[in-house]
Amino acid sequence: MNASKTFYDDIPETIRIPEEFIHKKGEIIIIIDEKTTRGKKKPLKEYFGILSDFPEREKQGEYEPRDVL
Question: Which one of 1, 32, 52, 55 has the largest count of C-beta atoms within 10 Å of its C-beta?
Answer without folding.
Answer: 32
